[in-house]
Sequence to fold (343 residues):
Amino acid sequence: MDNLLEQDRESMQNLLKHRGEPAYRADQLWQWMWQKKAGNFQEMTNISKALRSSLQQEFVLQRPEVVQKKESIDGTVKLLLGLSDGFCIETVIIPEKDYYTQCISTQVGCPMGCVFCSTGRMGFKRNLTPGEIASQVLVAGRHLEDTGLDSTRLTNVVLMGMGEPLLNWDAVKKAMGMMTDPLGLGISRRRLTLSTVGVRDRLQEFGRSRLGMLAVSLHAPDQELRRKLMPGAATWDIQDLVSALEQYPLAPRERITIEYVLLKDINDSPAQARGLVRLLSRVKCKVNLLACNPGEHEGYQPPQEKTILAFEEVLRSKGLTVTLRKSKGQDISAACGQLAADS
Fold:
């Protein structure tokens, strides 16, 4: 049977229209699925028994299944999620001061092959469907409720988990629509961030969609080093990528987030910081610095704190806005670059 969670709201409206149902019925059904997190049709008490029975004979409400839970000493939770075909993905719930951020996946594995990333070492298995992407938020919300926590505090979602979102753009676009729909998950586009290494044409299409904020994984100040660290991403020359970022559509107060993972003795020198400043001189951006999180089989290490601070100071002294991101969930391999579901 088909998974009803794969239907966007327009498709839902058409589905029920063909059944002779009034237009508002689609909105009710949509709210039960996404806002009220209904796990079965029988929970939908303001929908007629006849319609519930009819839908149950043709559709399922199938979310990824929690296979394993791991909790960090800092409160971060990593969920290993099983999909209907036996593959697994990971999603991470990150506690902030007064809200939660969820990091969700868009592919099983990743084809980009970034050498310091555990997901990249998995290789690519398949794309996720729109329902598999968006319903990770439902699973996280249910986990919070089951553990006595407030699921309404899950307000921020970042597409920074397994996979390159823009290589699965059609499904990601549909899923982000489900997440931002006021009758769906109702997540503000300013609290929904897509992280990409940069994919030609699709980057601009995402910008025109206005579905969320943009973060770009750069990790090198020049093309030669980026090719060594991010072979899949470097097929788009770094200068051409930056030119595209200069033209990226932004509202007056919006900025692109540039993600830069610092690798000891590889991309962390003051000279490389100055190179990064030159590269980004005409991009409306802020820089998010993060010391690398070593994976089990990787030869990459985080720099010493003094090296990180020196790199940060070069950027600040040249007028860039910089944030030093604190790594969370490292002890359970839930931090940036550490996701690698066994499947």
Observations:
- The longest strand covers residues 88-95.
